[in-house]
Automatic annotation (TrEMBL):
One of its GO terms (molecular function) is monooxygenase activity. Heme binds at residue 453. It comes from Mytilinidion resinicola. Keywords: Heme, Iron, Metal-binding, Monooxygenase, Oxidoreductase. This is Cytochrome P450. Pfam families: p450.
Amino acid sequence: MTSHLLSLLLTATSLGIILLLSRLLWSYLTSPIRDIPGPFLAKLTDLWRLYSHWAGTHIETQRKLHEKYGSAVRIGPNCVSISDPSLITTIYDTRGDFVKSDLYRVTDAVQDGQTVESVFSTRSNDFHSKYIKPIHKFYVMNSILKIEHFVDRTLESLCEHIEERFIERLNTGKLFDIADWIHLYTWDVMSELTFSKKMGFLETGGDVEDAIATNKFLMRYFALVGQVPTLDKWLAKNPILPFKLPTFSGAASLCAQRMFERVQNPALATHDDFLNRFLQAKVDYPDFVGDNDVVAYLMLHLLGGADTTAIILNALIYHLLRNPAAHSRLVSELTTARLPYPAPYAAASRLPYLTAVISEAIRIHPSIGNILERVVPPAGLELRDGRKIAPGTLVGVNAWTVARSKEVYGKDVDTFRPERWLQAEEEGVESYDSRVKGMRQAELAFGAGRRACMGKPFAMVELYKVVATLFGRFEIELEGPKTEWRVLKLFFVFPSGIMVRMRRAANGT
Ligand code: HEM
């Protein structure tokens, strides 16, 4: 009896495997994108790219594949990675013809049994237009500059903590990982601007309420499960899963809790913070902005703004410290500028070398390491060489790939060289302008087109202020000239292990 059952089971399993393999082979042979080259396994199953994200090799793998196969590479049975910068404005156009793919569904939260989309995750242009309208005005530069003094407050606190813990008295010359402190700072800034309350990352000198650790987990989850989004239904969005994953819904609960506290006690707002602004959006647009939407706005703001800015800041610090010539050129520009500290954005953003350093950091180390996936619309996508990508195919560009385009940035794409953003001595104005225009057009670190980053003005304000303040006020040196950092490649590409010693600069006030 048992052996009969066993043989039945074996036959059923073998049949299942044969059916699965036949299905894979059939879709391989009949795929409308079968002429797009790529690794054999990638053409058969999305598990191939899931594995490369799991191993953290997706960025290098995609780069190497583009070197081998050209500007279009098949990285999944229905997914093509594009590295041609001239297609950025097509795939990420301002009309939103190429809608976001199901990858983004993974970041939807579930609140009271309901799926909550956000302006980041939605696949619908109508939803996006509708829900962005009530909040767009809060993210424009004029509005951000009105709250610059709150950034000052947290930046001042970062400097004080660094001085107390690593510079003054017994702590003089103490070695520390500046990446950790930048990370704590960006989380405190975002919590202060969002909830009028620093969550106390700098004060504690570590994570608070597991926010940073949870976001890292979410970025790993998003990077992996996003490659096979149906898995999300069986994992994070599975109500009967016997164990709890720290999901996007967990972050949503924290934001919901803060929102209800505020509704009960409006005096908790010490300034016109983002929670107040989002609650006002609910008053202004009562027909469609409800509590769940305020939570979605809050989540996006908090989860999208802290890690991303910390990543660029840390990449900038590391690369600058590894490049003594660029480092001393920046310090000398700051010394001459004699800015007050914390540095005001208006003055810092006028400094040409600082601007070049920031542009180069954004180029060499974009915060996001995945392709930004979109769905090819009914009209299809035509490549530069005339090949066509069929409607319904998932396509996308990885900011890391285009930022290393030799055609656009020159041969030394792997070198941190801020000078590439400045006019060379022998270069005429016209050719400089057209070179910079080309470099700007190939930038994808903040996304592009209709779904580009809304928080870019705020991120830029922070980048200018923090870099000018730290490098103007302190002397910073790496533990050793060849100190290597660590880089954790998830959906975000997190640097760590930037071991430095700091001193007050002779003229830093
Ligand atoms: C250096 C810092 C930052 C980087 C590199 C960055 C990058 C990005 C990218 C690449 C996207 C588009 C993603 C896609 O197409 O899939 C995006 C979207 C978004 N980001 Fe940022 N971001 C940064 C900072 C911020 C900040 C500080 C905020 C909030 C204050 C923010 C809010 C948003 C929002 C709301 C969206 C969704 C926009 C939409 O779909 O309409 N970001 N960001």
